[in-house]
Amino acid sequence: MLTKSTIKFIKSLQEKKYRKQEQCFVVEGAKSVEEVLQSDFGVEMLVASPEFVQSVESWRSNIQIFEAKPTEMAGLGDFQSNDAALAVVRMKPKTEPVVSPNSFTLLLDDIRDPGNLGTIIRTADWYGIQTIIASEETVDFYSPKVINSTKGSFIRIHFSNADLSQVLQKQTALPVYGAFLDGEDVHTIQFPKGGLLVIGNESKGISPTVEKFVTNRVTIPRYGKAESLNAAIATAILLDNIKR
Amino acid sequence: MLTKSTIKFIKSLQEKKYRKQEQCFVVEGAKSVEEVLQSDFGVEMLVASPEFVQSVESWRSNIQIFEAKPTEMAGLGDFQSNDAALAVVRMKPKTEPVVSPNSFTLLLDDIRDPGNLGTIIRTADWYGIQTIIASEETVDFYSPKVINSTKGSFIRIHFSNADLSQVLQKQTALPVYGAFLDGEDVHTIQFPKGGLLVIGNESKGISPTVEKFVTNRVTIPRYGKAESLNAAIATAILLDNIKR
């Protein structure tokens, strides 16, 4: 049975302060919980329906397991309804990001919307991106809305926070792509195998300090009248053009 | 000054029931309000900072204008903070959607997330799409979250709701594209000038009744491991490949 203090603990992980203190975060929904149980993330606690618990108990005995009714699970996490499973997962220790010269690395310059960050991670995973480095101001990777909108892709992406200027200072051998209004048409560029792609903030775009490091200014051609594209949408279109 | 009953009226427009009853919806933020004032939408009421009111008063005298402080405007709409402007706008009368044979028309088969719908409208506007037809189950076009995430593009798109099967039954001359896992690679297809593009529901994809009308099954190639793409992301990538 879920005690009041366990409920309080799980709910506290909605807030960044407590996630940092506990070094834990929440994963919701049967599919993502299944995936995280099979990953190399450490799962501390599982709250799930009897059916779900039965399906995993045999191969995971080192975690705290609570059977719960849908009514008990409602309100524990960010989902409006979740009748199957919720896991409390341990954050991985921070490691230095590795920028490979043979693939593309995504650099996020101050993405603020959790839905955008989650969708960028999911899209990057679709396009085979392995490393994402985000500015310190970027919304918390472990926020429930970010984790939920990655649809499980948070497991496969190597994500880290860093000062982007410092990262870029070290990468002088690789081309650095960034989207601007005055760049080269992405439909006609021949992209190399490896490089860095910078995605700017939702309203301000790429910051001046990061812009200095951009070697290749690119533009997504516009055929209509919208003034701009959403940051996650722009990321997807750039990755599709880079990979094709 | 804003009276209690005006505040109540504006707040009621957060709900679909009252929007339908009043045939009005809310537009928030200086930029979108400016755009809607310059459009052919009828603006009923403007709540704005004295500076904003001064900038528009001279050329719009047939609307109710209220000057308000940021504290008064907070909580009126969906924005967490909005210190500039909010408008109550009249819905346009419903008209039959026109499917042009010389351009692409977007068909939305049950898009449920307001952020996705808004982003799809904004992206469609970027790619010069003029007409979007959505199934009756699709989230309400006039919902504040939809309107806000279009970033003003709701003004330029001809949007209507209809039974998609009935629309498709009449369009036998045009190719109907839909994304499936077993389709032709969008990177190698030569798209025509005109056609219909169907976007399916976030979790279920294109429904069987609509799938019957799809003449061209297409696939966005995957280079990594994510299981699927977000509906708005898929729309963007398809449109970029159609238009290039």
Compact description:
Two copies of one chain form a homodimer. With 244 residues, chain A is of the alpha/beta class.
Architecture blueprint of SSEs:
2 copies of one chain form a homodimer.
Chain A: H1 4-12, H2 16-22, E1 24-28, H3 30-37, E2 43-48, H4 50-57, E3 64-67, H5 70-73, E4 85-90, E5 104-108, H6 114-126, E6 131-134, H7 144-149, E7 158-161, H8 164-170, E8 176-185, E9 195-199, H9 208-211, E10 216-219, H10 231-243
Helix pairs in contact in A: 6-10
Describe the structure.
2 copies of one chain form a homodimer. Chain A folds into 2 domains: 4-90, 2-Layer Sandwich (60s Ribosomal Protein L30, Chain: A), CATH 3.30.1330; 104-243, Alpha/beta knot (3-Layer(aba) Sandwich), CATH 3.40.1280. The radius of gyration of chain A is 20 Å and the shape is elongated. With 244 residues, chain A is α/β, with parallel strands linked by helices. Chain A has helices at 4-12, 16-22, 30-37, 50-57, 70-73, 114-126, 144-149, 164-170, 208-211, 231-243, and strands at residues 24-28, 43-48, 64-67, 85-90, 104-108, 131-134, 158-161, 176-185, 195-199, 216-219. In chain A, the strands form 2 sheets. Chain A has a 6-stranded parallel sheet, covered by helices on one side. In chain A, strands 1-4-2-3 form a 4-stranded mixed sheet. The interface between A and B is medium-sized, with 35 and 35 residues.
